């Protein structure tokens, strides 16, 4: 090799001679994890739920650390962590609701890697939130009724799910609702109430709601696993059962989810509940873009924002390096809002460091797409890389349904 002064040459020498540093420069895919079925199609009524199961199998002993879903209308019922023995499938239970149709992703992160499954929810859905709320307010205004808007068991939910067309659960939309709804029906008595577990493990959700016109429900709204007793109490205006019940009563408000993904718009003639609408919190509703900035989500991995894995490749592949530096891939992590820096989101906006699952480098770097980079560098280039991952692993049907590989490749086209 010709002498070449400077830090880049030093990196090459380290790469060719020392395997230790190369362990940090590879993001080759982990092979021993399989989730079945990889794709499920679930037909469910708009206000109903169904239970699905996935089987996670590993060829090596490992532990399931987290099981995340981007859309909270698909809930993971299996608790983590869970030990996985080689060849013995671990059953992952899911609850799917028909609030909003679409393709949802379940991310299963283990101590030896990450694997995902896709759930297609086939449902008529509850409709667009804006239209349904306006219709309910119009009816209440016409009949001179009062309205209570109720959200229950947010459990710390702060963001929309889905990075291209988010659907449910945005605290930014909830914050904007009271003022917007009052403007829609200025003469209608209107209160926005939250009940149940609002904060979950994230402090401050109730504070944001209270500062934007919401109030704690107090004793007039009951979340109860004994709804029979609750509906007989004349001081209670609405009862949300927390367990399945066959009871029918005008006061019962059956929320299809238990994570604050929907609103109940309750219309009262005097003290009598005369009508209720279950309405999704979706992107058709107004939003306050300032409220999410104060929240961050704990990650199961450590993000190294200054770790330039691609530099080890650019030493030899300068043309490719120039194209990468100018691409959106290089800055993918920086495009995430603080509230979106979650395990589910950073998986496509970062690069795994070596064989570990506890550290990632910010941005989509060379090792995120090119396979067998470790062997390539160790051999001084004698062993070729083993191809690339599918673009659809991140640009999938849910995140980017209109993605086309050839035009996308033209944008990041690079030679050696």
Task: Describe, in plain words, how this protein is organized in 3D.
The chain has 3 domains: 7-27 and 296-411, no CATH class; 33-122, Immunoglobulin-like (Sandwich); 129-293, no CATH class. Helices cover 21% and strands 27% of the residues. It contains 12 helices and 19 strands. The strands form 5 sheets. A 5-stranded mixed beta sheet has the order 2-9-8-4-6, with no helix packed on it. It has a 5-stranded mixed beta sheet with strand order 12-11-10-15-16. The protein has a 4-stranded antiparallel beta sheet with strand order 1-3-7-5, with no helix packed on it. It is elongated.
Q: Strands, helices and their partners?
A:
Blueprint: H1 7-17, H2 19-22, E1 33-36, E2 39-43, E3 49-58, E4 62-69, E5 74-76, E6 82-84, E7 90-97, E8 102-110, E9 113-122, H3 129-142, E10 146-152, H4 171-184, E11 190-195, H5 205-211, E12 214-216, E13 221-224, H6 227-231, E14 238-241, E15 262-269, E16 272-280, E17 302-304, H7 311-314, H8 318-325, H9 343-346, E18 350-352, E19 359-362, H10 366-369, H11 373-378, H12 405-411
Quick structural gist:
This protein has helices spanning 7-17, 19-22, 129-142, 171-184, 205-211, 227-231, 311-314, 318-325, 343-346, 366-369, 373-378, 405-411; strands at residues 33-36, 39-43, 49-58, 62-69, 74-76, 82-84, 90-97, 102-110, 113-122, 146-152, 190-195, 214-216, 221-224, 238-241, 262-269, 272-280, 302-304, 350-352, 359-362. It is an alpha/beta fold.
Characteristic key phrases:
Immunoglobulin-like, 3 domains, 5-stranded mixed beta sheet, elongated, disordered N terminus
């Amino acid at each position: 090799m010709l002498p070449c002064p400077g830090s880049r040459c030093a990196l090459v020498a380290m790469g060719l001679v020392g395997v230790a540093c190369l362990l940090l420069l590879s993001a080759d895919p982990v092979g021993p994890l399989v989730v079945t079925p990889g794709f499920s199609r679930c037909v469910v009524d708009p206000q109903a739920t169904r239970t699905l199961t996935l089987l996670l199998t590993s060829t090596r002993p490992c532990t399931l650390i987290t099981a995340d879903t981007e859309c909270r209308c698909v809930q993971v019922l299996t608790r983590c962590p869970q030990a996985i023995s080689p060849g013995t499938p671990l059953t992952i239970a899911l609850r799917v609701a028909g609030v909003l149709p679409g393709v949802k992703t379940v991310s299963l992160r283990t101590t030896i890697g990450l694997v995902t499954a896709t759930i297609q929810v086939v449902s008529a859905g509850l409709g667009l939130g804006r239209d349904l709320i306006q219709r309910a307010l119009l009816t209440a205004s016409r009949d001179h009724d009062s309205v209570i808007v109720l959200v229950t068991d947010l459990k710390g939910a702060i963001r929309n799910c889905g990075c291209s067309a988010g659907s449910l659960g945005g605290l930014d939309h909830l914050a904007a609702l009271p003022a917007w709804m009052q403007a829609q029906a200025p003469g209608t008595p209107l209160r926005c109430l939250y009940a149940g577990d609002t904060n979950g493990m994230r402090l401050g959700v109730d504070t944001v709601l209270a500062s934007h016109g919401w109030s704690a429900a107090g004793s007039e709204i009951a979340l109860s696993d004994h709804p029979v007793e609750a509906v007989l109490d004349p001081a209670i205006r609405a009862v949300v059962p927390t367990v399945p019940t066959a009871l029918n009563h005008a006061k019962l408000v059956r929320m299809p989810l238990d994570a604050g993904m929907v609103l109940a718009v309750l219309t009262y003639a005097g003290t009598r509940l005369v009508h209720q609408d279950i309405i999704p919190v979706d992107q058709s509703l107004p939003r306050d873009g300032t409220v999410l900035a104060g929240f961050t989500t704990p990650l199961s991995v450590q993000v190294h924002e200054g770790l330039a894995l691609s530099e080890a490749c650019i030493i030899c592949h300068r043309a490719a390096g120039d194209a990468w530096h100018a691409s959106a891939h290089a800055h993918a992590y920086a495009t995430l809002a603080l509230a979106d820096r979650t395990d589910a989101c950073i998986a496509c906006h970062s690069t795994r460091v070596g064989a570990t699952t506890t550290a990632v480098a910010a941005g989509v770097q060379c090792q995120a797409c090119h396979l067998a980079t470790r062997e390539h560098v160790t051999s001084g280039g004698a062993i070729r890389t083993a191809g690339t991952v599918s673009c659809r692993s991140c640009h999938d049907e849910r995140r980017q349904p209109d993605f086309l590989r050839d035009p996308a490749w033209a944008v990041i086209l690079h030679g050696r």
